Amino acid sequence: GAIVNLSQAINVSQGVNGNGANVTQNAGSTVNIGTSLNMSGNAATGGTSFYTVLGTLTIDDDLNAGAAFAATFSLIGDSATVSVGRAVNAKAKSTFEFELNATGVSSIDAVGALTVDDGAKLVIDGSAYAGGNTDITLFDAASMTGSFAASDITVTGLGVKGTGWTLTQGTNGDVVLGVIPEPAAVTLVALTGLSFLFIKRRLTR
After folding, report:
1. What confidence tier does 92 reach under pLDDT thresholds 50, 70, 90?
2. Which residue, 174, 170, 141, 136, is CA-closest to 155?
3. 123: pLDDT confidence band, cut at 50, 70 and 90?
């Protein structure tokens, strides 16, 4: 995959046709940013800017999103890697999206703090997840200031909060998604195991 080394700060903001900028980093690609990644929308029209990661992204300093205008940072699947040398700053107009594949999604790892301002949004799509009961770390930071409000958290594809999923924020700077298999799925696995055992016993008689 392609490797891009950038020594200056990268500003993902104003795009064309009234939209913000839209950057997609494909699987297998590597982008190294020597200072900070700053994300904001289109100042003239308010259009949202997007940065989507399926490859490897390394930011030496800060990841700043949504300070003045809307910005969405997305992480897709568990093959992506995002490493931040200093802090992650989720400003009031930021959205952080995590899209699980069949086995989960990677985390945003920060050497410094994760700061979440009021209004920052967290979106989780578990529609493609096919695994079992597990904890998936979304943010792994040294510490955490603020948190994503319940009204600013959207989770799809994992059932109902409390029975299908849980979210823990702030423990050692981490944000962790707990996935709880639906009872029907657990029952199906159990029945499959019993059926296999029954067939095996019949064959050995």
Report:
1. very high
2. 136
3. very high
- For position 111, what pLDDT does the model report? 98
Query: How many whole angstroms separate alpha carbon 109 and alpha carbon 174?
Result: 9
Q: How far is Cα 196 from Cα 190, in angstroms, rounded to an integer?
A: 10
Q: How far apart are CA 65 and CA 71, in angstroms?
A: 6
Q: Average pLDDT of 194-200?
A: 46
Contact 74, 53 (CB under 8 A): yes
Question: Which contiguous run of DSSP H or E holds residue 107?
Answer: none
d(CA 30, CA 5): 8
Please state whether beta strands 49-53 and 88-90 pair in parallel, antiparallel, or not at all (unpaired): unpaired
Mean pLDDT of 28-47: 81
Backbone angles phi, psi at 181, to 5 degrees: -60, 145
The pairing of beta strand 134-140 with beta strand 174-179:
antiparallel
Residue 41 near residue 67, CB atoms below 8 Å: no
**Mean pLDDT in the chain?**
84
Amino acid at 101: N
More confident residue, 124 or 44: 124
DSSP secondary structure letter of residue 104: B
Tell which residue, 40, 118, 103, 101, has the closest CA to residue 72: 40
Q: Which stretches does DSSP call E strand in 7-87?
A: 10-12, 22-25, 30-33, 37-39, 49-53, 56-59, 63-65, 71-76, 81-84
Four-residue CA torsion sign, 8, 111, 67, 168: positive
